[in-house]
Amino acid sequence: MNFSLEDAVPVLSRTPLVLRSLLEGLPESWIRGTEGPDTWSPFDIVGHLIHGERTDWMVRTEVLLADGESRPFTPFDRVAMFEASRGKTLHQLLDLFAELRAANLLRLASLNLTTEDLDRRGRHPELGRVTLGELLATWVAHDLSHIAQIARVMGRQYQDAVGPWRAYLPMLGVRGGSES
Amino acid sequence: MNFSLEDAVPVLSRTPLVLRSLLEGLPESWIRGTEGPDTWSPFDIVGHLIHGERTDWMVRTEVLLADGESRPFTPFDRVAMFEASRGKTLHQLLDLFAELRAANLLRLASLNLTTEDLDRRGRHPELGRVTLGELLATWVAHDLSHIAQIARVMGRQYQDAVGPWRAYLPMLGVRGGSES
To answer: Cys-Cys link to A148, which of A121, B34, B148, B153 (CB 3.0-4.6 A)?
Structure first.
């Protein structure tokens, strides 16, 4: 698929409800379970998505539109949530994500972007030249990637409980394997 | 995590809303996109989950409780949905899945299963001896695996649109790679 705002906005606008329907009110063992040391729980992932709303997608969009390739984006801190989410409940994080996402989609709509605008260029600190369309497509793919990750992390909590069915569920990981 | 009904039922009961919030009302290109020949679209996956409600989880639970290891489960048809979903809309499939899941969770609750019951044994046609707890844990992990798959299939529709960011999104697949 080529990127279009008509396809992208409906996905971006659904993510808060997807996260809420997946996670809200579940036992803590689902919310806080990880895939092992140095991996993220669903709680951590929601915090990471919040940090993206605050510092990444719309902030970079505005930098790109204002300064083009002359000003590289600020690097994104992938692990800021370990500090920022401390002491918060999942319910608070889900509410905060929903608020930030709604506000960002309003900011996006207010830009009245045209198809031509999607070809405008900015500079990523590592990847170099990128377009606005690529940035916005990445916002969508990043959401979907972390929804998939949450479902995978949850499923892996049952990698032993499923017994021999593990052979039919590649997402749970090969017995004794260490793949991510 | 060990399997428990207290942990499992909240996940099973959420899946219909998770699917609805991910998919309902999206442009067809998201609903019908696949990962290439002989792979499934989100529409196909919802149909597959419907077939599981009809012929797998609770049917096998009842066979196991009635006949133990003496009667192997009927093999599950993983691709029955290609015929069964024909001519239906996604909206119809989501409604049907929600109805079947709700009815199956009522059947499950009506069994008043004890912790001891979870060790009762049945016979899988390929895997051999399995326990009721393993069967029910697999129901949960199977849901989560297909939620992750739907998010992945959707994300991959943007594998080109994200441009150089693909390097940061392993779920989208390595450029030119064929891994699933």
So the answer is: B148
* Residue B176: predicted pLDDT: 52
Residue A55 pLDDT: 96
- For B24, residues 6+ apart whose C-beta sits below 8 A from its C-beta are B90, B91, B94
Residue A180 has pLDDT above 70, yes or no: no
Backbone angles phi, psi at A165, to 5 degrees: -65, -15
How many angstroms away from the CA of B49 is the closest CA of chain A?
14
Binned average pLDDT, 10 residues per bin, chain B of 180 residues: 97 98 97 96 97 97 98 93 93 98 98 98 97 98 98 98 96 61
Q: Which residues pair with B131 in a beta bridge?
A: B121
Distances (CA, A) of A99 to A102, A103, A108, A147, B33: 5, 6, 14, 18, 30
Residue to substitute from B48, B168, B172, B175, interface A, most A β-carbons within 10 A:
B168
Chain A hits for B20, CB-CB cut-off 8 Å, are 21
Q: Calculate how close chain A gets to B90, using CA atoms only, in Å.
A: 16
